[in-house]
């Protein structure tokens, strides 16, 4: 075997794909254009840089689909999950990481691997030969985007993905804010106090909504449309959908008791999550925004406890491009018109760090097996991995295809279990038990 696997893009998906293929014995070249060619969202040339949240979301592998995906990736010797565990921060029941050491470690591990080479060149075409994985993510370069559109013969699908702001911890007024995870969730005191909470009464909330609605927003370029992904809506868009929307979303006041006034129930609560191991930075949870920078500082300083906040990073907004995978990719994630090319990560229409890395894991293994002349068994549909790849390669409705997080709605029902909310706990446990067994069997056969 002398064929090299080329991977374009060194984000979550590309990094995981490279690791899996190299561990199977295949030589890999990662083509990552940064830092030679930068993007407005990235700040370094590191692989697997986290440009939005620092959270991999729930780590509950019995009652949550993304937690199950964590479990499956750990079982498969996933680089992203192993490194995330090594740089874990307290976040209640979630898996949050110290973003800079995380990316630095992923980069160091891949550069040290004897079968991995990293180059900083930009790839702008779809090659006719060789084995390739394109994992360029939501910030695919314009030139490569044009090449993909030319090959697929369809207009690019796009939505806008917003970045939440980060606040310096020492600028937060702790006489108004307090530390507590919702419902005191977590096994340790550190986990139970992983979030910083800023309470609002009714008048403060109403004034905040008014300011959000009136704030200057980023204007879109001609020809662009705001097809937002519902799991990552800017807060002002949520406010436009109804004045109570935020109170039932990221600002819901449930499961929290104000340490400074335990008998006063907040009308709304803004939560911040620790963004680094030192605890010097906090990101505002669920506060993706397309407000202009000046408006952001004015509006966010209306939040009790953030009146004098200093921002390490303000929110931003960027165009996120993905392909219509159900029509373009086969079950092996290969481009039907150019089967020497696979796609992986967010460009395939999965949403989130974990989902992107998971599709990279599968693409890396599939490409390596093809190079090595091996036949991989079909990814079990009842695993989290299988549910996702089945969705993007044919399970989704192509006409209405939109980015998707992993969720139990993608799983086949388990016979004999009660539906509805009351049966949810037993149903989810059955999903995860079945998935773990099938995923482990698949790994044993590979």
Automatic annotation (TrEMBL):
<keyword id="KW-0808">Transferase</keyword>
<keyword id="KW-0520">NAD</keyword>
<feature type="domain" description="MnmG N-terminal">
    <location>
        <begin position="6"/>
        <end position="374"/>
    </location>
</feature>
<feature type="binding site">
    <location>
        <begin position="9"/>
        <end position="14"/>
    </location>
    <ligand>
        <name>FAD</name>
    </ligand>
</feature>
<keyword id="KW-0963">Cytoplasm</keyword>
<dbReference type="InterPro" id="IPR040131">
    <property type="entry name" value="MnmG_N"/>
</dbReference>
<comment type="function">
    <text>Catalyzes the folate-dependent formation of 5-methyl-uridine at position 54 (M-5-U54) in all tRNAs.</text>
</comment>
<keyword id="KW-0521">NADP</keyword>
<dbReference type="InterPro" id="IPR004417">
    <property type="entry name" value="TrmFO"/>
</dbReference>
<protein>
    <recommendedName>
        <fullName>Methylenetetrahydrofolate--tRNA-(uracil-5-)-methyltransferase TrmFO</fullName>
        <ecNumber>2.1.1.74</ecNumber>
    </recommendedName>
</protein>
<comment type="function">
    <text>NAD-binding protein involved in the addition of a carboxymethylaminomethyl (cmnm) group at the wobble position (U34) of certain tRNAs, forming tRNA-cmnm(5)s(2)U34.</text>
</comment>
<comment type="similarity">
    <text>Belongs to the MnmG family. TrmFO subfamily.</text>
</comment>
<dbReference type="InterPro" id="IPR036188">
    <property type="entry name" value="FAD/NAD-bd_sf"/>
</dbReference>
<keyword id="KW-0274">FAD</keyword>
<dbReference type="InterPro" id="IPR002218">
    <property type="entry name" value="MnmG-rel"/>
</dbReference>
<dbReference type="InterPro" id="IPR020595">
    <property type="entry name" value="MnmG-rel_CS"/>
</dbReference>
<keyword id="KW-0819">tRNA processing</keyword>
<dbReference type="Pfam" id="PF01134">
    <property type="entry name" value="GIDA"/>
</dbReference>
<keyword id="KW-0285">Flavoprotein</keyword>
<keyword id="KW-0489">Methyltransferase</keyword>
């Amino acid at each position: 075997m002398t064929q090299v696997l080329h991977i374009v893009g060194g984000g979550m998906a590309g990094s995981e794909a490279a690791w899996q293929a190299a561990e199977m014995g295949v030589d890999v070249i990662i083509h990552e254009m940064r830092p030679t060619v930068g993007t407005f969202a990235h700040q370094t040339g590191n692989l697997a840089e986290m440009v939005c949240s620092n959270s991999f979301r729930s780590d509950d592998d019995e009652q949550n689909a993304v937690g199950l995906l964590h479990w499956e990736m750990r079982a498969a010797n996933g680089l992203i999950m192993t490194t995330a565990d090594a740089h874990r921060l307290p976040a209640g029941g979630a898996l949050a990481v110290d973003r800079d050491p995380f990316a630095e470690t992923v980069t160091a591990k891949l550069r040290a691997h004897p079968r991995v080479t990293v180059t900083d060149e930009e790839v702008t075409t779809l090659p006719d030969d060789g084995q390739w994985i394109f994992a360029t993510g939501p910030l695919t370069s314009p030139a490569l985007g044009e090449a993909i559109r030319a090959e697929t013969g369809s207009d690019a699908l796009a939505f806008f993905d917003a970045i939440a702001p980060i606040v310096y911890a020492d600028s937060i007024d702790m006489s108004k804010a307090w530390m507590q995870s919702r419902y005191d969730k977590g096994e340790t005191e550190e986990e139970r106090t992983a979030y910083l909470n800023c309470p609002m009464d009714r008048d403060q909330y109403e004034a905040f909504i008014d300011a959000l609605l009136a704030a200057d927003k980023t204007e879109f370029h001609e020809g662009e449309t705001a097809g937002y992904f519902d799991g990552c809506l800017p807060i002002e868009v949520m406010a436009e959908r109804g004045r109570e929307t935020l109170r039932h979303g990221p600002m819901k006041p449930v499961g929290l008791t104000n340490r400074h006034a335990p008998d006063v129930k907040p009308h709304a609560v803004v939560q911040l999550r620790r963004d680094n191991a030192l605890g010097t930075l906090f990101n505002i949870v669920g506060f993706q925004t397309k407000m202009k920078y000046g408006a952001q500082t004015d509006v966010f300083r209306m939040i009790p406890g953030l009146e004098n906040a200093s921002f390490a990073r303000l929110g931003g907004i960027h165009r996120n491009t993905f392909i219509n995978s159900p029509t373009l990719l086969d079950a092996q994630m290969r481009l039907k018109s150019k089967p020497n090319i696979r796609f992986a990560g967010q460009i395939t229409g999965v949403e989130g760090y974990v989902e992107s890395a998971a599709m990279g894991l599968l693409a890396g293994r599939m490409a390596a097996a093809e190079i090595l002349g091996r036949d991989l068994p079909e990814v079990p549909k009842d695993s989290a991995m299988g549910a996702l790849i089945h969705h993007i390669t044919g399970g989704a409705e192509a006409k209405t295809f939109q980015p998707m997080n992993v969720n139990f709605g993608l799983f086949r029902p388990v016979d004999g279990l009660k539906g509805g909310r009351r049966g949810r706990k037993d149903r989810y446990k059955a999903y995860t038990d079945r998935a773990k067994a099938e995923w482990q069997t698949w790994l044993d056969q590979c």
